[in-house]
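User: Hi! Is it possible to get a structure for several chains at once, not just one? Here's what I have:
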Amino acid sequence: MLGLLRLVLILFVVQTIAYIGLSFYSRSLRRRKLELRWSEKALPVDQETFVRRGLTRYDNSLRRKLILGVYIVPWIAISVLIYVVNFM
Amino acid sequence: MAYIKWAFILTFWLLLGGLLHYTLPQYDIVRIVNTYEERQDLNDWTRIFWSSPDDQSASLAGRDVQFIQGVRENGKPIVYRNEDTGWGWPFYFKFDTANLYTEANDAISTKGNPEWVSILHYGWRNEFLSTFPNAISIKPVEGPDHRVINWFNIVFLTLLAAIFWAIWVRWRRFREARIDPVLDDIGDSMDAAGDSITEKRGRFRRWLNSWRS
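Assistant: Yes, the chains can be modeled jointly so their relative placement is included. Here is the combined structure:
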């Protein structure tokens, strides 16, 4: 079971790096999109407020929580693989 | 410089290709003729071609390994090893070595009355280094002409190519936006510095020459 422990630990570190990286990347994408949308339309709010409001909405969105899949999807894949290789 | 650069690039792709070819699953259609167990020494560098199952201490210098002997349709022999991969690399999560050994023994057939099986495996057979591909699963097939479509490899390699392409495109964009202008700047100022040095040297030379008579 030491092997399992090692896999869990290494995978956790990799997943955490991927999670942090993806979070920042996705947020910066959203910010760029919001800035673009602001400059396309003539809105009564200034750009900073518009972007800040949009990002708050993004922080509470399901889309952002989907990034947590980084922690779940590999373990689903591993479970399926274990079943297919050993029990099918 | 260009040669060194290309040597690096070539080495990188060769190593990556080798790693993928070693690790990714492949199918063989064979007839299993026998199985055997043999003690293997694991104390030299070819250790990397054997598995390290969970219940094995790292200091072990040798152990029994199960082998599955097969014959291809063209009559050429192929020998597989049968080892757990456990939780480690390569990530096949194979724990059913004993079951697979039973299945292999069950599928033994003769030349006169052949039973064909498709063996999923990874790894290389090398006679000089005594390495063997590791059998992962055995499925009976109707005949030696049976073709298995390797969906996993198709999907995996496509995804890998997509990821490489995505990184490559972003890196090139980043280089064009951030690094190339800086390099150009450096190049320009180097040129400027070079010019002024040449000019100064010219003046110095003229001054030296002025002492000649």
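The CA atoms of residues 54 and 60 of chain A lie 10 Å apart. Chain A is about 85% helix and 0% strand.

User: Great, thank you!
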